[in-house]
Amino acid sequence: MQAHRKYDFRNQSFEGEQGRLIPLLQAAQEQEGYLSREGLLRIQRESGIPLAQIYGVATFYAQFRLKPVGRHLIRVCHGTACHVSGAVELTQAIGKHLQIGNGETTADRMFTLETVSCLGCCSLAPALMIGNATYGNLSPSSAIKLLKKYQKGDHP
């Protein structure tokens, strides 16, 4: 069983402030990589903020995750330029290769696949990011070759 972490939610800089929930959620997510059920309950217990409010904020903002993510986060751009250049086929090929769908994580927690609205690199369409590295002008086969490098540990 995983050891429970003790969060310091009583940070004086947030105590009594109206907008303290987002920093509390960010701190919890930074420690575990996502917002676990236990983490949300600890925030509720230690801050006094109602659980419904905590959950509402955690599910409203895209920055928060309620499921663990893989070591490598793959974000496939589905903006207009990428979409017309083959983003759907790219995402399908990656999903098939990794045996996961959009928003899912591989069983070994190595990869998480997600589609995003825009990466801001339209001239590289279709493009994706793995972590902070951007790759462009991809085909389904070149994306799979790239993933195989990551799977072997041979990546930047």
Tell me about this structure:
- The chain has 156 residues and is of the alpha+beta class.
- It folds into 2 domains: 1-67, Arc Repressor Mutant, subunit A (Orthogonal Bundle); 72-152, 3-Layer(aba) Sandwich (Glutaredoxin).
- It is built from 6 helices and 4 strands.
- It has a 4-stranded mixed sheet with strand order 2-1-3-4, covered by helices on one side.
- α5 (87-98) packs parallel to α6 (140-152).
- The longest helix has 13 residues, at 140-152.
- It is elongated, with a radius of gyration of 18 Å.
CATH structural fold name of the largest domain? Glutaredoxin
Distance between the termini: 33 Å
Q: How are strands sequenced across the largest beta sheet?
A: 2-1-3-4
Mean of residue pLDDT? 88
Main sheet record: 4 strands, mixed
Low-confidence residue ranges: 11-15
Number of domains: 2
User: How many strands?
Assistant: 4
**Structural class, please?**
alpha+beta
The number of helices is 6
Topology:
Layout: H1 21-32, H2 37-47, H3 51-60, E1 72-77, H4 80-84, H5 87-98, E2 111-116, E3 128-130, E4 133-135, H6 140-152
Parallel strand pairs: 1-2
Antiparallel strand pairs: 1-3, 3-4
Helix pairs in contact: 5-6
List keywords for this structure.
156 residues, alpha+beta, Arc Repressor Mutant, subunit A, Glutaredoxin, 2 domains, four-stranded mixed sheet, 6 helices, 4 strands, 40% helix, 12% strand
Summarize the structure.
The chain has 156 residues and is α+β, with helices and mostly antiparallel strands.
